[in-house]
Amino acid sequence: MISSRPTARPGSPATAYVDLGAIEANVRAVQARAPGSALMVVVKADAYGHGLLPVARAARRAGAGWIGVAQLPEAISLRDNGVDGRVLAWLAVPGADFAGCLERDIDLGVSATWALAEIAAAARHTGRTARVHLKVDSGLGRGGAYAAGFTDLLGAAARATREGTVQVVGVWSHLACADEPGHPSIRLQQAVFEAAVAEAERAGCSLEVRHLANSAATLTDPSLHYDLVRVGIAGYGLSPGPGVGDHTAYGLTPAMTLVARLSLVKDVPEGQGVSYGHSYTTPRATRLGLVPVGYGDGIPRNASNVGPLAVAGQRHRIAGRVCMDQVVVDLGPGSQAQAGDEVVIFGTGAAGEPTANEWAVSTGTISYEIVTRLGPRVERVYVGAQEVS
Known about the structure:
Blueprint: E1 14-19, H1 20-33, E2 38-42, H2 44-48, H3 52-61, E3 66-71, H4 72-80, E4 86-91, H5 98-103, E5 107-110, H6 113-126, E6 130-137, E7 145-146, H7 148-163, E8 166-172, H8 184-202, E9 209-211, H9 215-220, E10 228-231, E11 256-261, E12 264-268, E13 273-274, E14 280-281, E15 286-291, E16 308-311, E17 314-317, E18 327-330, E19 342-346, H10 356-363, H11 367-372, E20 379-383
Parallel strand pairs: 1-20, 2-3, 2-10, 3-4, 4-5, 5-6, 6-7, 6-8, 8-9
Antiparallel strand pairs: 1-11, 11-19, 12-15, 13-14, 15-18, 16-17, 16-19
Helix pairs in contact: 1-3, 6-7
């Protein structure tokens, strides 16, 4: 649990404390793993639930030269709120606001010729040359131009470059199994990526950056660093996966602590069914606590009967099914808990409280989803840095 954190707004049912100082320290720790490469901090999906603008500003303060987002409106929001430096956005559909991005000096990731055509049209309209990063599908089978499609994309880019509407500044790709160090797909993808870079250079592209590494690759494999590394989950202090190791092995600190408050405490007899379907029945006379967060706030419904939490320093698990707005905890007989007491759902683990990774393991998912899925009813409070706006 974060020490010396400020008191949240009175009456707030749940608060996510985001330690911007921890994020800054994580960014510096990751940069130290790739000293010869520029660093991009990825703040897509509201900075993995931590808050787009505060996290982007913290990353900049920590020395990140690049900020990355998936969707174009995220990049536009960064610019319109004063976030400077290089920003890359890469996920769009036909008709997206490419002109708005060019007007705001945003780099664009390109995976298909249709996107390049629309970006070139936006460049003609705005009178600005677009900086683009051509994405090759090196084996993930998701975004990027695949095989001969990358050659086609290069050809279209060459024509747009001659026209003066496009400048190819980067070639990039994404790894499928970087969180499993030594997986054979990593070297196969690396070979495809390097071949694509060579092809782009033969086609006359003067590349500024070549980038392939995500958090896992940045932490574990220097051969994948190239000119720029893209760090997402590690910036928030969480490990990319069990194969990479615990966050403490890399000097990272989880930045988010999720705290709720008991809204009701009551005594019930032995044999009392709890929550929908009575999937939990009290094994003895006990005291129950009601916690006003549920799947409407991002608590996974499959955390029913397994989701860990802590009350007054004591570990418990959710009792019964997770509801839309609330969960129940069996506090045990003789509990002195009262309405208003804090319930730590997850945090750094330093004080023995559950972590986001524990939640991921207990619900069969990844820590990325646990923090990213928190909804807007969960108040965010920023601590640990001077600038928190």
